[in-house]
Amino acid sequence: MTLTDFCQYTEVRAILGIEPRDLEDTTLALPLYARLLSLALADLSPTLEADYLLTKQKVSKTAGEQKFMDLVQVFSGYAVARELLTALPQFAAMRIVRGKDTYERQIDPEAIKEAVLAAIGRLSAPVLAAYATLSPTNATSSAPRRTLFSNSALGTDPVTGA
To answer: What three-state secondary structure class fits 148?
Structure first.
């Protein structure tokens, strides 16, 4: 699986409001982003990715299959953009100077973050609904989000050693 099986690099950049020089295709082609998308799709349904790839290979698709494909592609663009939000202030240039021309970009990372997270929330249910129309066995509830980090108490007091 590659990222371009699910969304185009230009779509991810458009969601974030950046240009190719801010985020190059070679960066988006890293396997990391395909794996992160795979995890996001698995959070919706464990078999969604495989069923999408099977549906994509079909020559003629029903209206329900096409809707499922479209929704997964839109969701995928937003899912990848969500992963890039933390680094957005680092790679999205605020001021661009070309010779005598100067352009101030009005990027509000917080507004972009809110919009992307809202879109992910809005798209999850329709993706699952379209997926369920392909086969009743696909009507599964969302898996819980993975917790990669958690807090834990120290086993011993670092001062007294007890």
So the answer is: coil
